[in-house]
Amino acid sequence: MSAFTAELIGTMFLILLGNGVVANVVLKSTKGNSSGWMVITTGWALSVFAGVVIAAPYSGAHLNPAVTLGLALVGKFAWDQVGWYILAQLLGAMLGALLVWLVYKPHFETTEDPLSQLAVFSTGPAIRHRLSNLFSEAVGTFVLIFVVFYFTNPELGEEKTPIGMGALGAIPVSFLVWAIGLSLGGTTGYAINPARDLGPRLVHTLLPIKNKCHSDWPYAWIPILGPFLGAAAAALLYLLLKA
Fold first, then answer.
1. Model-level pTM?
2. Hey, which of 66, 121, 134, 199 would disulfide with 231, CB 3.0 to 4.6 Å?
3. 196-232 burial, b for 16+ CB within 10 Å, e for fewer?
4. Range of 188's domain?
């Protein structure tokens, strides 16, 4: 499997299971309806596990443009591969979101609240305050990237393992994402991943969903810029401490 394919498929599984747990909680007449934030954060942590297991041996399992950018900024990833990784992640996120819609299509049709439908695809703030929301996304991503820097050892076993979230296996990253969701995710829904928000939001815009509302594009720049800022800040601190 090529690195591009691994990032695409790994991100697809990440979104299929991650957005899938949101669908199970917020859509009408599902088995998991109204089961709450603990279920969502646990589901997202396990979705990271699945994505990392698939992609780690082939691409390092970035599954997130902010991870790719952060690793490139500290010299752990080649800049000429950044664009390809991000493209694969965006396409994988879109495909995963499409699959969630297909699986839960009857529930989308019976869910009259358009904002609940949108929540399956993209994040949104609990309190809309652009500067605070941007800061929340940046801090959550900062934690993710900074910790990833300290458990990305390129030499594992007899072969060189690609750098990324899967460099030490899926379990540590899953617990890290779970911790971020439980501790910092309550403000914006913790995108901490531009592809995770942008790809599914595009799919929401394109799909013929009954009762669909706008895709909240005026907010969409926050879960894109915030994670990139957080990744840059993590890279800067890592380089300062390493010097």
1. 0.93
2. 66
3. bbbbbbbbbeebebeeeeebbeebbebbbebbbbbbb
4. 3-242
pLDDT digits 0-9 by tens, 168-217: 567 788 899 999 999 999 999 999 999 999 999 999 999 999 999 999 99
CATH number of the domain that 211 lies in?
A: 1.20.1080.10
Q: How many residues does the chain have?
A: 243
Name the domain count of the chain: 1
